[in-house]
Amino acid sequence: MSLLEVRSVDAQYGLLKAVRGVSLIIEEGETRALVGANGAGKTTLLSVIAGAHRPAAGTIIFDGVDITRVPAHKRVGLGIALVPEGRRLFPGLSVEENLSIAGGRRRDGAWTVDRVLEIFPMLQTRRRQRAATLSGGEQQATAIGRALMCNPRLILLDEVSLGLAPMAVASVYDSLRGLISSGTTVVIVEQDLGRALAVSTRVTCMLHGEIVLEGESSALTREQITAAYFGVRQPSIVGSEP
Amino acid sequence: MNWVNVLLQGVLLGGFYALLACGLSLMFGVMRIINLAHGDIAVIGAYLIWVIVNQTQIPPWLAALLVLPIMWVAGYAMYVLLLERSRRAGLLVPLLTTFGLAIVIQNVLLQVFSPDDHSLLSSTGTLATSSVSFGGLSISIFGVLTLATAVIVLSGLQLFLSRTTAGRQMRATAEDPGVAELVGINARSVYAKATAIAVAIAGLGGIFLAIRQTFNPSTGPTQLIFAFEAVVIGGFGSPWGTLLGGIVLGVAQVIGAQVNPQYFVLFGHLVFLAVLASPRGGILDRRGRAL
């Protein structure tokens, strides 16, 4: 049984349709890269999966249960955590408070504040510092740590490298590799194709709210993905099953 | 010594305003809702303790212990039944909703209790009128009790917001309710609890109101104005700013009364207008730092 199944989902903002009839299957332990140009619908799709945006049509199945109408805070308890685009930390709260805030409805699991600080050493000296005063990389690490504190089975990472210095990106990805190797299922939205391909097992490319390419990261060429990314031509779906 | 005495009376009066303003500040800080029914809710607290004391003959302090949980539940229900829908419609709709609620409360109180003045003065003996003299100063016992209660409530609120998980979740929801949901916080429940706490504290303010002065169904709007002025002077959303704002308002009013008894309210309004006109817009920011 798949961990996540998205069936024919439509999502819109007013009259603007951001996601059109998207279907997606994510297996447990998989790392899926979701790529596409700005406005392709990637962030909206992650928001729909996390429960932050209600779909206009379609169904979300998580671990065999229909969660389409389950509110976001209850999905956290089921094991879905989103690291939103732009980090969106609670700026007035300290790093430790941002991390421990997820305590209410989180699943039982091994993640603690100390363990998060272990995988993100850059935060160790910032523990009691307000989130608003952190650098971009430190904020991203805190945002990922906050999601990990929910002990997720599925973690959705939206634009983790956006606006970060190259060294900070490298540092965040080093920590992510450890997380991926631990078996957590990850869906990562990334503009940097090279990094997306390097960490993922499968790639899904979106264009104008639809999935235009999907396949094993190792089986797809960079040219195929780039073409789908910009909508130069419509490549065929490679491998319907992961 | 006379002016020192005036300042002291102002500080003690400020304690009462801070107590009234505390819930108003909390609701704005967490939900960005300016509750225009806040004064009338405090008056409900006053009527509630008056009814309990007169019907059961129990001491007022014991009646107060009954009033607070009743107000807490009423506040929770007020959010779930009334404010939740209007909050989703933007900033203006809750303002209109609470304005309507204020009118409903005033008219229901008028229908039930008549326009006559009520007071708890007769049930509290000399508590509201007794004072001690100290080095030429006259210190009202009830004023000290009110100020001490305001300090305890505001300290408790500050500790709750900074030290407890529920308080941190309240701060997080105040900063970004959307993301709060994404980390497992039920924003609806947080808002309902914040309203419940605010209404319970307003009820506490109403209890002190019932002891210190007479009240009737039209008393609420005046209390709202004083509470609102205290919150604006102190800086919206800051507990300690609210205390400071209440004290500044109280001192201004007492100084005004010293100049001419008719200027009691006017001087408070002038300080309020001066703060509104100043670019700083309050004494403390939301985190309690000087602006």
Summarize, please.
Chain A is α/β, with parallel strands linked by helices. Chain A is 31% helix and 26% strand.
How far do the termini of chain A sit from each other? 12 Å
Strand tally of chain A: 10
| SS-based class of chain B | mainly alpha
Shape designation of chain A: globular
- Strand order in space, largest sheet of chain A: 6-7-8-3-9-10
Strand content of chain A: 25-35%
Which spans of chain A have pLDDT < 50 for at least 5 consecutive residues?
none
Amount of helix of chain B = over 70%
Strand order of the largest sheet of chain B: 1-2
Oligomer: heterodimer
Give the topology string of chain A: H per helix, E per strand. Answer: EEEHEEHEHHHEHEHEEH
Report the total helices of chain A.
8
The Rg value of chain B, from CA coordinates, equals: 19 Å
Class based on secondary structure composition and strand pairing of chain A:
alpha/beta
N→C terminal distance of chain B: 32 Å
Order of helices and strands of chain B: HHHHEEHHHHHHH
The greatest interface between two protein chains, and residues involved on each side, is: A-B, 29 and 19 residues
Portion of residues within helices of chain A = 25-40%
